[in-house]
């Protein structure tokens, strides 16, 4: 293989790797962060943000073993505005303040230096609970119960 052909092939591989985008779990209405935040505000729901990345084995494991569960899907779809953020993406989004940042910068702001990271937030983006790494069905259900209890207690006071 000539040096030119090798360089061209390497360039194509780098471009295709850069264009690859991580995927949210199937069966959920995950939206970009800015759209999910608007939904959270308009519906008065907490925000659930899944920080993942392309090629993340722990993300895939959590998707297959926990997000595939019908009870998790039902609760999270009903209780949260769902956002998926590719923590390595250069995709731009607009924050409620009007500031434009990349998904990568958003991940940095919320300390998503490893993936997966699951952040439960107020509709204004204030962090309430954070889970890091592979999550099991029980972990996600327990986190949901904790958030729902906190909301009920806040509503009762």
TrEMBL record:
UniProt key word GTP-binding: no
Pfam family, one: Thioredoxin_2
Matches recorded under Gene3D superfamilies: Glutaredoxin (3.40.30.10)
Residues making up the signal peptide according to the UniProt record: 1-22
Domain Thioredoxin: from-to ranges: 13-149
Keywords: Signal
Tagged with keyword Signal: yes
Protein name: Thioredoxin-related protein
